[in-house]
Design brief:
alpha/beta; binds coproporphyrinogen III; 12% strand; TIM Barrel; 16 helices; 48% helix
Amino acid sequence: MSTVPRFVKACLAQPVDRIPVWIMRQAGRYLPEYRKLRGEYPFLTLCKTPALATEVTLQPLERFRMDAAILFSDILLLLEAMGVDLAFDEKVGPRLGRGESGEERVRSLSVPDPVQEMGYVLDAIRQIKGSIPEGCALIGFSGAPFTLATYLIEGGSSKDFYATKSFMYKEPAAFHRLMETLADALEAFLKAQIAAGVDAIQLFDTWAMILSPADYRELVLPHMQRLVAGVKHEGVPTIHFSLGTSTLLDAMDQMGTDVLSLDWKIDLGEARERLGPQKAVQGNLDPFALFQEPARLEESVLEILEKGSRWPGYVFNLGHGVHPKTPVENMRRLVEVVHSFPVPQAT
Ligand code: CP3
């Protein structure tokens, strides 16, 4: 009997017996057991203590039969390992640096040895792999170079990305160098995660949506292609996450990842048509669809399943992370509906 998890098979566009499902931020604030632990420890302590990161990663699996778990961590921890001060403020969100300018932060970056600087992530991966249910895959992840660049240059979240875009347009050569440095650090970090045992890698490019197709191709795509080629290991699929990027779909198709994660603003059937049967897709239910009453939720899930599963290579997910106010019962229903759906090309 094959031991390849159905989630990995779907990422590689191979036939599956059931459509695999996992949910972005499935371990998080909508779960009372997460809120309880968060009441006892700061967010960064949860991320940096392997036993706690393991406990949080596995929490949703005790309730739901997800086909994959995602390592509990954050994309910004790599920037800290590259020498930038990181804090999470309950009200304003992440803060990078201690009041230096964005350019000073960019100049101060170093490429860390992941074993030395991110050992707590690698230890968590090994612990999770020791206790994850049979058949459930573990997803490792990182930010993508562009999204990390925005946090680094802005010093946190931003509304208009003034500092990032000024830097990008005024100093394109320096911007390319920054993207290269980030991609080098990411490649080493992702290879270390693969060596520690993750079954797949997801690259989060949350802010790619602010770029024109031409700028995306010029400033981001070459760095993504190099990074993805660098981490392509046999049997460890790569997933690219973005949202609001249907205008960038053709460029993103050229990046080389096995899977593209899509949000609800693009019709899933149309996306599969445009990408063709070789490219696996993940998504794309609106996270707020989980606030509907159960019968309507079921209809929304079935509609997505029908569009996604017309060829092998489909992973059910939301288009972005689950909202903290989501009713837990609706998550249970969603997973049941996905798993009882008859796959047209079932193995
Ligand atoms: O999906 C998972 O559950 C795995 C863990 C994970 C977290 N962040 C935990 C987290 C992952 C994969 C991320 C990715 C991440 N982090 C992204 C890309 C995905 C996306 O959501 O667009 C980004 C942009 C970040 C940066 C970040 N981390 C911000 C802007 C914030 C504050 C906003 C918020 O949601 O609170 C975080 C904090 C964060 N990361 C939390 C969690 C569970 C909330 C922390 C808490 O419990 O207070």
